[in-house]
Write a structure and sequence with these properties.
- The chain is mainly alpha-helical.
- The chain contains four helices and two strands, in the order αααββα.
- It has one domain.
- The protein has a two-stranded antiparallel ribbon.
- The longest helix is centred in the middle third of the chain and has 43 residues.
- It is elongated and about 65 Å long.
Length: 137
């Protein structure tokens, strides 16, 4: 494993930690849960309602989805600039970073470049950090 690969892995873990902390601090998890519960109830009511009531429920559903989107997009707004800068720097300085997998993935093969390495370790570490910080919507 090269130093470039270790840098990509470390940065992917740090970015996952950064975005998880942003989610924990910026998203009102209880509000998101209540909105999702209310949306589920509205969807159930929509199945058994007439046209007039359906329009009212649809309007309410759109309003709730807008609130939900505002809550869940907050961390992305703050982190997107940092992530784009990191991706640019990784593409310049770590373009030769690869890891060899113990198995072959169809259409990809048995090795991952810096993007694949970043994605793999980012997904794994994000799942771990979401469990640690109890972030579940």
């Amino acid at each position: 494993m090269t130093i470039e690969t270790i840098i990509v892995i470390t940065i992917s873990i740090l970015i996952a930690l950064f975005t998880s902390i942003l989610q924990k601090k910026l998203v009102d998890i209880e509000l998101v849960k209540s909105i999702k519960k209310e949306l589920k109830e509205i969807n159930n009511e929509m199945k058994k309602s007439d046209k007039d009531e359906l329009n009212k429920l649809l309007s309410k559903s759109m309003e709730l989805q807008s609130k939900l989107m505002k809550q869940t997009m907050k961390p992305m707004i703050y982190s997107s600039g940092v992530i784009l800068l990191v991706f640019y720097l990784l593409s310049v300085y770590c373009k030769n970073a690869t890891i060899v997998l113990p198995f072959s993935i169809p259409f990809i093969g048995n090795s991952l470049g810096w993007v694949g390495t970043y994605i793999l370790f980012s997904i794994i570490s994000s799942l771990i950090f979401r469990k640690i910080f109890k972030i579940n919507f």
